[in-house]
């Protein structure tokens, strides 16, 4: 089963996204960022989540 084979990769990706979001949250609280940085960061996280979702969906269809 593809998901089982790639479980570690998925978990690593989710951990990475979680860590980056926590870091981003801390930076927002410190107010050391600007609006463009926030938008760029959100776009990066959205792309990572969409890629992960696509990988999971492709794995389920096999």
What does it look like?
The chain has 62 residues and is mostly helical. The protein has one domain. It is built from three helices and no strands. It has helices spanning 2-5, 7-30, 35-61. The longest helix has 27 residues, at 35-61. The radius of gyration is 14 Å and the shape is elongated.
Secondary-structure element order, N to C: HHH
Residue-averaged pLDDT: 75
Number of helices, counting only DSSP H or I runs of 4 residues or more:
3
What is the oligomeric state here?
single chain
How large is the share of residues in beta strands? Answer: under 5%
Biggest sheet statistics: none
Domains, number: 1
- The 3D shape can be described as elongated
* Number of strand elements: 0
Give the helix proportion (percent range): over 70%
Rg over C-alpha atoms, rounded to the nearest angstrom: 14 Å
Intertermini distance: 8 Å
Task: Characterize this entry briefly.
The protein is an all-alpha fold and 62 residues long. The protein contains 3 helices and no strands.
Which terms would index this structure?
single chain; mainly alpha; 62 residues
Secondary structure elements and pairings:
Elements: H1 2-5, H2 7-30, H3 35-61
């Amino acid at each position: 089963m593809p998901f089982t084979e790639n479980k570690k990769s998925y978990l690593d990706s989710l951990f990475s996204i979680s860590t980056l979001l926590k870091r981003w949250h801390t930076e927002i609280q410190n107010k050391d960022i600007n609006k463009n940085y926030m938008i760029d960061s959100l776009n990066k996280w959205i792309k990572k989540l969409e890629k992960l979702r696509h990988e999971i969906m492709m794995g389920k269809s096999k």
